[in-house]
Amino acid sequence: MPTMEELRLKGNKCFADDPAEASQYYLQAVELYEAQHTKDASCTLDEFAKSAGNALTCLFKVGETEQCAALATRVLRSNPILAKANAFYGRCALVDPSLDVASEGNGTASAAALMFLCRAMYELPALEESTRDNVEEALTRLMQEQLTVFATFNTTRDHAMRVVAGKHGNGVEAIRIIPAYTEVASLLTPFSVGAYEESGGKGCCVECSRPIQDENEAGNDAHEDDDDDDDGDGGEKSSANGGVTEERESKQKNSSGIRGCPACDMVAYCSEKCEETHRKQHEQFECARMQRLKEMMRGIEARKVDAPEMFYELAYHCITTVAGLRAQRTGHDRVLTLSAHVDEVVQSLHPIGPLMCDLFKNEEQPPLLYQVIGVLRCNALEVTDESGLGVGQGLHIGEGVASYYNHSCAPNCAIDPVLHRIITTRTVQPGEEMTIAYIPQLYWPTRLRQERLSEGYFFVCRCPRCVKGDKDAFELALSMALPTARSDATKHYHSIVQVRCSAVRARSVEDVSAKDAEELNSLLSELMRHLFPFHYLCHEVRNCLSFVYAVLGDSQRCLSSCLDELLMWECILPGALPVKQLKIANALQCLQGLGPGATCAAALYPHLSRLALLYEVAEPN
Q: Where is the SET domain (predicted)?
């Protein structure tokens, strides 16, 4: 029986003149490796990579795209980081869009092509030049598809989605093709809002959940565009009561100019409209309890009571949710029907139950409070400002469908932090479930994502990406260690990286220094002695470095770091995720700072302007 090397050399002899014949020798070598690599020392991974790469080249050259794509998928099971296989799968998806990629959760063949081409460049940067035209073609097609799908979508006003019952509860399903950037739910009508402790409860509007950016924005009427729905005399009412309004505003604004309640000083409103809408509920059911919470937090800190880390945010949100129940806000009859996992939540957050009962002073029954705690822990969505920083949470249960969006680790929708809505991030095909991500760590491997979701939301994720799990080559690549790595390298460095990066991110801007960049780069160098550069922990450090470089004003390094991060995100998920848009915006800002003639070695640098167009990221002013 010939060896793998002998078969490869036979293929090499006819490679130029007869690629079809050559492919057969290479395929025999691949089959020999699959059958004998655990028994035959001559069946090496290096020989496998050479024969597989040559076979892919030959099959693509002779137009056997379906067979080429199938081989790419097959060889990635044996070698998850064979970059050439990713490159050829991407090329095949461009040549033959009929390849079954929609079921893989990519939306279109062009989106799949871009993802696999980026994986090739991420795993082997030397492939950037040979795949550059392919990436350009994928981006061009995606922009064309976007226009076509948008035009088709707008030809009818028929419903585009529906709420459906599934094995994991209700969800939202597309009933016709939906283009990217389509608003599919508003997040400006939450049932209740909970603000974070860092802002003293005033990080977002307690009525509509808009982030309170600064005193100028807080003083403006953020809902002036919504007044078109009024009965027509809103302007006259405002004019007639001008003096009363000014007097009330002077009392209701605190020293920083934020609208709020002078009695508790723990709520904020983004507009007079929200203040008027929410005032009665706040005065009747919230204000006294907010003041009690403030005193309780002082006592907890003074006596060093062992309270759960998120006690403040849960207590605050529990106050506003119970208030909404008592005020019979829209959706009050559905709140307690949401999944709650009461026993698990209360037990995991002990002593949250007794503390909450103490806060409410027996004014509400413990079973109700425990149920509300569970509902909030399992269903509330984070509210972020435009930079992606969390400022609070919202519970959505009204007339819209926001509360029905389930989690997926490969979502096709996302929360727009600027306009506070749920939008599609890519083309959504009919029959697809429409999903968002409950956690930001979508670059983590399957096991860690599932652990985080189980700890935070009390369910084991069974989304298509998690079900596929380690069967997916790139999922394996995200946590692969070098052959020469120390034992348990990923486990060893996970906690080190999380602690180091969390400490840096927690600092105020004034405290970030060049020393942080030096220490993070030193940590990254150490990681890369044990882990592949595309390991999720390497990305974690790069993400932190981007923050440090931005603070230090190091535009060149910040540009490279942002584009490296963007490449990683393109490898994992298709579509206009907000994190991608943020990285592109930061990269464009860096370029503006560097001025004409700026250069960058990052793989996506040649495509930055096209990506900005595709993902609708505006040039900086």
A: 189-439
